[in-house]
Design brief:
The chain is α/β, with parallel strands linked by helices. It has 18 helices and eight strands. The longest helix has 17 residues. It is globular.
Length: 387
């Protein structure tokens, strides 16, 4: 796209807000490029873009498709020895590009779907609570149960994606089993905006957050539980004033207290994939592993790249619904790493990782020897002895 002068000026303002001192902390050591899951040794990404910003070559930076290669996985930021935050620079650049109407088609479609239907797939927003029709247990709404303690913020993927709604149904039974006093918003729930913000659409993020907060206030929400790391990250860190827990926290507490008993062994070898928004964004590495260790029969094996060094599945930043423009397919690479552990099950704790890694296993033809399961599904199987 042609970069207009006002867009370049706007980017300069965004960089000031970002903090130019951060950019000049970078001394081009190349750690970010070496660790980046999508660097192909041709673009020298993201090191080169950091250098453009240092030199004030804003027009070149904004007119560079490499900005959209970034998965915002934060691998470069946690690895940077100078805290220069390269991944956040990518988001800053996207803000200017999106404001100028220059987002790639798959990102523009992703944003349009969320703007119109409050979910990445563009499914009618009135269908958000349709999954509850298949539930064998009660799933009350905040209208039905005004005395609820915890708002279960279900999230887009767990509401609309067929593979992930099966996880949602199991979580509903677990919540009922342990006696959690919860309710959902149903059709009144909107997108949290986590990936909208990382795609650079700050205005839409603010609108989504404002609408959600208004709904929270309407029903007196104080405590929120969610099973999506994307929702968890934004609700916990970018919405003020709420106690937010990841679903596995509540499950872990219920197992330890005896409210949820894991009676049925799962004699399988399991490897766990750390999601970016649970791990690098929020430092939650051990909780999922501790839950897996409590399941009788499970033998946990690690991939070489784990915890803060975990390799991104590629599903963030709107890529969950579009064709990733880069040379490499991160989900295929990660699927191969998982298969090489010899595990029978690839355990995940994120609905986006579920979608991406199932696709990766199929593409790499490992799906006959390895299944992708949410940890919630494994807990359910051990607790109730059924799929």
């Amino acid at each position: 796209m042609r970069i207009e002068a006002e867009n370049i000026e706007r980017f300069a303002e965004i960089l000031e807000d970002f903090g130019m001192e951060r950019i000049f902390e970078c001394f081009n050591c190349g750690n970010c490029t070496a660790i980046c899951p999508v660097n192909d040794n041709e673009h020298l990404f993201p090191r080169r873009l950091m250098r453009y910003a240092q030199l004030g070559a804003n027009e070149v930076l904004l007119d560079n498709d490499d900005v959209w290669l970034c998965l915002v996985c934060r691998h470069c930021t946690v690895t940077c020895p100078r805290e220069a935050r390269p991944s956040e620079l990518m988001v800053a650049a996207r803000k200017a590009i999106v404001e100028a109407g220059g987002a790639p088609k798959h990102i523009a479609d992703f944003l349009t779907n969320i703007q119109k239907q409050k979910n990445p797939w563009g499914v009618g927003k009135f269908k958000r609570s349709d999954w509850t029709k298949k539930s064998e247990v009660e799933v009350p709404t905040v209208k039905d149960k005004p005395e609820f303690e915890w708002l279960w913020f279900v999230g887009c993927a767990h509401s609309f994606d067929n593979r992930n709604t099966s996880v949602t149904l199991k979580l509903a039974r677990i919540f009922n089993e342990i006696g959690l006093n919860f309710a959902i918003l149903g059709r009144e729930e909107g997108c949290c905006g986590n990936d909208v913000r990382r795609a650079g659409e700050e205005g839409l993020f603010e609108l989504l957050a404002e609408e959600n907060i208004k709904t929270f206030e309407k029903y007196g929400v104080k405590k929120i539980v969610t099973a999506s790391p994307h929702c968890y990250n934004t609700l916990k860190n970018e919405y003020d004033g709420y106690e937010v827990k990841f679903a596995l926290e509540i499950i872990y507490e219920a197992i330890k207290s005896g409210k949820l008993q894991l009676k049925h062994p799962i004699d399988r070898k399991v490897t766990y994939h750390d999601p970016c928004y649970l791990g690098r964004y929020n430092g939650v590495y051990e909780l999922p592993r501790e839950v897996l260790k409590l399941i009788p029969g499970v033998k946990l094996v690690e991939m070489p790249r784990n915890r803060s060094m975990s390799f991104c599945c590629g599903g963030g930043n709107g890529n969950i619904v579009g064709e990733y423009p880069g040379k490499f397919r991160p989900n295929n690479i990660r699927a191969k790493e998982a298969a090489e552990t010899g595990a029978d099950i690839l355990a995940v704790a994120c609905p986006f990782c579920m979608i991406m890694l199932e696709d990766g296993l199929k593409t790499q033809k490992f799906d006959k020897s390895m299944d992708v399961r949410d940890i919630i599904e494994l807990v359910y199987l051990s607790a109730f002895g059924e799929e």
